[in-house]
Each structure stands twice: as structure tokens, then as C-alpha cells.
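Thanks for the sequence, V.! I ran Ribosomal protein L11 methyltransferase right away. Repeating your input here for the record:
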Amino acid sequence: MKWKEVSVLTHGVCVEAITGLFHQLGSGGVIIEDPQAARTYVNKIKWNEGTDSLDVLEHEFIVVKAYFPEDRKIIEDLKLNIEKVEKTFNYRCKMYIGEVNQKDWEDAWKKYYHTFKIGDRLIIKPSWEDYEPKESEVIIELDPGMAFGTGIHASTRFCLKFIDKYMQGEETVIDAGCGSGILSIAAAKIGANKIFAVDIDDVAVKVAKENIHLNKLDHIVNVAEGDIIEAINEQKDTDIILANITAEVVSLLIPQAYRSLKPGGYIFGSGIVEGRWPGVKKQLEENNFIIEEVLQDVDWIGVVAKKA
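Predicted structure:
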């Protein structure tokens, strides 16, 4: 199968809007190449240059890439909506259209995507690599496919750290915008009793189901395609809501999240660009959430908030 690869060169303030646009148009996967975040991460740890692209590290701009089935007619819609983003943020973006084969995509992941650890316990491991876990470590088998959510980007890492730190076991969880299913798998491996994962993207739903089956968690995680806010509205007495999406969508779901959560329940919010954090913070406080923890990595924010 062939996919259209749409690359938009932009600035941090536009990233969330462009990512949201891609998802609204039904992208089969979104990648954010943020060289500033990558350089910060590389400087913090001993890094094997073979696991990242030196070309990306040298850029000063952010590239947001999305993938659409070859037969989708989306170019005119993309141009019109990106023009709106440019006017809103007063920043000129550049768009490039390419083509990628499914096999090329898979081979690229195998070249650059390797086993790594997040928090005290979580080990993210692609299925094609071997790893012998140490005591207390939890293995998450993951093939990202064409869906967002590998654990590498700051937004996903934040939520994984929150899962590792705050979950005690026996929880009921909603994964709002599940992408590859990585957060659902982590929550199940840590000890959640029941997880409802939902995504508006049918490709993400397919990939999430495959990854959940790969981890033998079909009995715990139920994956469905649908609207995130409607899905939360249908679930009651929830212990934790995972929301690794965008600041706009996090803000929209906060009132419903409060109604769905048990007293003392948590929302883990991520995918929030720094400039949009004040609005999300205000929405949390106005809906009687107590902010327990905030993490930041370059321009990205993650938050843990507790229902009062």
C-alpha cells in the first residue's frame, strides 16, 4: 500500500493546530520532528547516533508529518486550512507532498526505533528486538505502524511517567485518543482492571488492536473508533482518564472528564504546547481539579490533575 506523506515546516506555536488539522482530516499517522527537543534529549543521555537522524538534529524548524491513503483527495483542504493557521499565528508554513510505501515505513521504524526505558518500570520494546527484563521492569511490546504514539515524543513520555508513578492497580481507565495503544498497554501492564480506548482515526484503532493483541491484553483493553468526548460521556465511575492529544481537545473534554471521574480520580493531560498551557490550567481550575504535577520538556507540557 502507498501513502501520501505531507510534511509541514513550521514553528512551535503552530504545531498543535497543524497536528489537530491532520487528525481532523483522517490522517493515518502523525509524526512531530522537533530538533530542539531532540537536542535537549540527546544532551541528557549517552546517545547512539544510529538511533536518530543527524539531519533532524541540525534543523531549526519543526516538521509535522502526516500520512494519508494514496487515494484520499485532501490536498485542497490542507492548503485552505494551513492558510488559516498561517493567518491565525502570523507565521508562514511550508508544505511538501511525498509518497511512501508501507514496507519503507516499516523498515524505517526498524532502523531508528529501539528498546528504551521510561520511569522506574516501563520498557518500550519493538517486537523485532530481544530484551531480558530486570526485576520489577514491565515490558511493552509495540509496533507503531502508521499510528501516533511510540513513547519517544515528550507528550507520550509524560503520560507513561504518570502511569508509572500514580497507578496503583485495579483502576478503570479511559484512553482518550489511543493512537498506537501504548498508554492503554502500559496501564494494563501496571495493573488496571478495565480500559476503554477510543480514537477517531480508524488506522489508529486497527494498530492499537494489533498491539494490544501482541501484548495479550484483549481481555482488559476494549478499543473502539469514535468521538472522544462522547466516549467519555458514556463512561462513569472512572479512576483515570488518559488524554495525550492537543491542548484544544484536552480543554474541551475537561468538564465531561470531571463528571465521568470518581472523587479523587485523575486526568493525565499531554500534547499541550507551552503557549496553550495557561488556558488548559484555567479550565482545570474552573472545573474543580487540583493540579498535582506538571512536567515540561522544551515547548511541551504534561499535567496530572485530581478531581476534588
